[in-house]
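Protocol step 4 of 6: record predicted structures for both targets in the notebook before any analysis. Target 1:
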Amino acid sequence: MAEKVSRRMKILVACEFSGIVRDAFAKRGHDAMRTDRLEIYNKYQGHCAYCGRKITFKQMQVDHYWPKYLAHFQPGQKNHRPDNLMPSCQKCNIHKHRMKPEEWRLELARQVTMLRKNAQFNRALIFGQIEITEKPIIFYFEQLNRRIKNHGGGE
């Protein structure tokens, strides 16, 4: 019986603690817990906002377009507002990490320079298996926004 009481007590304490944490987040203005993940997922019809790959709802990670740690540079703005939250695949979210969007764009553009130091990459390049293009890095959501604007859907 003592074991059952102990287990129940742990559950009650855990529930109480999660309520405290939730209240603490709410008091500090963290509204991410109330964010509608489905709304974020549907923002780009189930695609990663950055690379454009199709992702499932379960695979989606919510990325802060403007990184959380920079929120103090936007006084009066909530960092968890819907326009700052992007549906992201795991690879893009992990690689972008804490970078500002333009920093990440530059980092992505440097990828080919880094790859040229790899012998396997150079061999594949020599044998024509891959081709280097000088295409600018344009995120999927930017491509969509341009299409909408060009087809009369923009302001």
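Target 2:
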Amino acid sequence: MKPRALVLCALVLALVSSESRAEWYAGVYGGYSSTHDLTPNMGAVPGASQIGVPILGLNGTTLNNLSMGNSGIVGGRIGFFLPKDLRPEIRLDWIGLEVDVFHVNPELKAQTVTAVNTVTTCANPCVTPVTTNTASSFSIGSTTLDLTGATGNIVFRIPLELIQPYAGAGVGAFGFSASNSGLGNVVNIHAGYQAFGGVKMFLTPSLSLFVEYKRLMSTVHFGSSIAADYTSDNAIAGIAWHFR
């Protein structure tokens, strides 16, 4: 058996053995999500260095930030903290791993979008390029941007008896969808990230309440040419069950 397989088997046996048991937990939560205005990025178009023709393409177009509304957030998580005596020489029950699944649905507000197109022309032979900026505006209606995400997180806690501060971060998949956005269809999945910190308060050894702040970050695509940076700040509260 390969050394890596031996290490994995040893870890699994340690987590489930009665003498060295991991602390498993599961929780649900809800709260308030504040979504930052989306920052659009237009895709680049190859061949924009042609001489004697306008350099006109998506690489020369910019959009203003897109105004977003706030929403609720709901989610659930399941995970475990390493056994305290997994390694006799060092205590490891302050390190945990979890899977976190959540859903938010902020509003993409009805608004006027301004697009500024930059066009560069130059005679042949090119001596002095001439650049002009042309602005145009169009209106988009209100729609809901649905986001369902799942991340794998690493969690660090201070394993006190009644109150446990904790913090962590994770990476996973964020699925976005929206209809009638006015900017193109939104049905895509992208890598997403989260960072969080909170406090857990134990009512009994097997039941706790927690409050937490988390930041979610990803990218959402409108159609095939517009990508926007997604960021939200989330304040949540929940309940967790512990299996020691």
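Step 5 preliminary note on target 2. Residues 6-19, 44-59 have pLDDT under 50 and may be disordered. Residues 19-44+70-110+143-243 form a domain with the Porin fold (CATH 2.40.160.20).
Proceed to step 6 after PI sign-off.
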